[in-house]
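Model: You mentioned two targets. I'll fold them one after the other.
Researcher: Yes, keep them separate.
Model: Target one:
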Amino acid sequence: MARGPRYKVPRKRRRQGKTDYYFRYRVLKSGQKIRAVVRKTNKYIIAQFIEFAPTGDVTLVGVTSKALNKLGWKGDPNSTPAAYLTGLLAGLLAKKKGITYAVPDIGLHRAVKGARVFAVIKGMRDAGVEIPASEEILPTGDRIRGEHIAEYAKKLYEEDPARFEKQFSAMLKRGFDPRNYPEHFEEIKNKIISSFGGE
């Protein structure tokens, strides 16, 4: 651990891995006030539109993937398809509040190509909110629809039914067959657009 008279203890939220203050400083210096904030926990995806204010940040829109349950989502709430749908829902709600542009803020998550945090950004963009991000880093359409999950589930079901039952037990208990991920994704996506896409 660093020591000495010049050593400065990092801020608490930086030590906890919650806030990148250098990124925050650059955003504020650029004059952009609204950030598209994406975070993930062990269970859920979190999508927010947050506005800077001198007295403290204001959350304009906040959605977690848990909200997808009310729309009939039966897949994993922490998967790439769920991340996209969460971003789409947050983006549509943001549009209703007049938000058309936001700076992406993925916090201290690593910027890995196709990561779930970028699936959220993709969903927000598809909702009509302009968020700068390279097309190369966004997940592909087949991953967003969950085709990779469906293919893996089909293979596992054919090769080891017992392991299939064990690995996908939570979804199966909800009455959902993971082999139908793409179809279920499209169903919920259409429901989100029809319910929240109107002006």
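Model: Target two:
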Amino acid sequence: MIINSDLHIHSSYSAATSPRMDLPTLAKGAARKGIQLLGTGDCLHPKWLTGIRELHEKDGFFYFKEEGTNFVLTVEVEDIKRVHHLLILPSIAKAEELYESFRKYSTDIDSDGRPSVRMSGEEIAEDAEDVEALIGPCHAFTPWTALYAYHNSLKDCYGDMSGYISFVELGLSADTSYADKISELHNLTFLTNSDAHSPYPIRLAREFNRFQMQDMTFEDLKAAIERRKGMKPVLNIGMPPKEGKYNESACIRCYKHYSLREAILRKWRCECRGMIKKGVRDRVNELADCDGAHPEHRPPYLHLIPLAEIIGLAVQKSASSKTVTGIWDSLLAEFGTEVNVLLDTSIAEIRGVELDDRVVEAISAFRTGKISVIPGGGGKYGVIVLNPEGSGEDAGEEEEIESKQQLSLFDF
């Protein structure tokens, strides 16, 4: 059984999120995207957990009868050093137990879906083990609220519990080619999740994982993440690192980019006097201790851009415009889900639909890597330049996937 999953999102109870981040909207949105399994996010928030209790439950997964989307209990928490951790829990009873453990160390656990706790990473991992939860660092390389922003190793963060960590979430500014330059990560599973704060197609599941599982159960998800019993991740799907907000070192005020040497010489102050924030690429290269060769268990990584963004680039309209929405709806009416259009339907089949030729050519260009990316930095996303007549600078390095024609896709 192949399962597409986005395991890190938020509810309307987290700061800076859409009020439409409710369970029915998320279930419908995931189904249209082609995602069978969503993390609930925010499962320690009492009101959000009340809503989750109203769903049907089987073997640790929660669902609406009328939708094909399953949910698994997840939460992101911030430790005393501002590092963020993702926890995946097996049951409501265990979530309640974890809530009681964290409550005495948190002033906002009842008000913010992503609570801050006055605990170290090691202490949080100990509590995770006590409730049989999976745990790993969120968006591990970004210069804010991340493992490698404040620590030089897993051991620095998790202490004696570092052996309990089973996954690392790469984040939007890193991919497998970056993370495997750090040898301590070679035995860990890499997760690619959206960290979505809104349910729109350009945010929800903009990054996701494809797992080989036997059944839709928490235990099988756990086995897939831990790569046991023949279950495992078979594909990571996410944005190219250059598109991330913090890929290169850049000023957070005017967004001027700097090399690492220039930033150090300037003492991390831009000519405009703004702060230069160290980029993920430079941070990874500081920590790199091997040539980046992938361990045998590492699945391919595909770069992906949401379908609405591809359509918008093709027809030169906003991804949220009526024109783009109409084309997106027509493609889903024909092929079922966004994932089917982006990954599983041949270009020949797409050409057979009455469709603007520019859209077909754009989808083809992304599949074959005929794009360029102007890198992001300092909190500003990178920019994709569509170049269907020639190969983009990022093309050609993805591993071939069995039974797939395309070699790469790209996401914003």
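Researcher: Noted. Anything on target two?
Model: The longest strand covers residues 70-78.
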